[in-house]
Structures are given as structure tokens and as C-alpha cells.
Amino acid sequence: KIMAERVTRYLEEKLKAKDSMIEKLRLKNATLKSQIHKVEKQLSQKEEIGDVLHYIDFHQLQIENKQYVAKIEERNEELLTVK
Fold first, then answer.
1. Buried b / exposed e across 43-52, counting CB within 10 Å, b at 16+?
2. Is the pTM of this model over 0.85?
């Protein structure tokens, strides 16, 4: 009878330890899923911002191009007056 109680107690402790481990892993899994969601959201935001930056960079290049074209035209006029 005493041996059976020890075995029962041992098995109950093992079950409690396993249940505790399952709960710990469940919480860790939930935390990791939350982190994944957060990182994916940040990634999508960065991709959107990247598209906006490319749009801004394009317009900046257009402005610079217009400035260079104006300088080229000025220099061409200077060359014509020198000739």
C-alpha cells in the first residue's frame, strides 16, 4: 500500500511538472507569435516608407536634372557668345 502511494505521488508530480512545462511552452509560443506579428508589421511599414522614399528620391532627381539642364543651356549660350 505504501509503495503504491509513493508511485502514485511520483506520477502525480511528474504530471504536474509536465503540465507546468506545457503551460510555460504555451506562453512562450504566444509571446513568439506576438513578436512575429510585431516584426511583420514593422517590415510592412518599412516597405511602405521605402516606396515613399523612392518616390521622393525620384522627384529630387527630377529637380536636380532640371537644374543641370538649365546649367547646360547657360553654358551653351556662353559658348555661342564666345564664338
1. eeeeeeeeee
2. no
